[in-house]
Inverse folding.
């Protein structure tokens, strides 16, 4: 597909954020699978992985409203985030430090999604695509809430780790 118009760019970026949600949900599942020690963190990561599934459905509703099929686009950024976590594990961190880095990794994913949704919501508004705007805005709000939860847990865990040191 040649990218010649702003709508083409919008569809490309929409496809990329679709892959961000798909592969990001897998990334969050992997973090839980690496056996995080903090049960609160495990629950939050699991919930965020489930949220990604619902957010994929919202993206698909947007695509349906536009009358298009999703492009096959990959997010190299999420793959890089996952690879960074895998590389970090080779340093054999303590369980507590591993949990803190898992939060940082999840935050990288969530912040990527927030930035992507902000751009897409702006484009959808400019194009007058109200149904698509609603779906994308719902995802943006959920991602911003997720970021807040992760920041709080990360701060609390960091404080506990500092006090213990």
């Amino acid at each position: 597909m040649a990218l010649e118009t702003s709508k083409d760019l919008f569809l490309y970026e929409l496809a990329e954020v679709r892959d961000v949600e798909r592969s990001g949900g897998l990334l969050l599942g992997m973090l839980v699978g690496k056996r995080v020690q903090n049960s609160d963190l495990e629950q939050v990561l699991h919930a965020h992985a489930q949220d990604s599934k619902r957010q994929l459905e919202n993206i698909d509703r947007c695509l349906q409203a536009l009358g298009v099929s999703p492009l096959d686009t990959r997010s190299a950024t999420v793959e890089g985030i996952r690879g960074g976590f895998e590389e970090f594990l080779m340093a054999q961190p303590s369980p507590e430090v591993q949990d803190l880095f898992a939060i940082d990794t999840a935050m990288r994913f969530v912040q990527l999604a927030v930035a992507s949704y902000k751009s897409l919501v702006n484009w959808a508004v400019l194009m007058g695509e109200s149904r698509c705007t609603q779906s994308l805005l719902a995802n943006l709000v959920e991602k911003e809430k997720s970021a807040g939860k992760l920041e709080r847990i990360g701060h609390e865990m960091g404080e506990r780790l500092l006090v213990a040191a």
Q: What stands out?
A: The helical segments are 6-33, 39-66, 76-89, 95-127, 130-164. Residues 6-164 form a domain with the Ferritin fold (CATH 1.20.1260.10). The mean pLDDT is 89. The two ends are 55 Å apart (CA to CA).
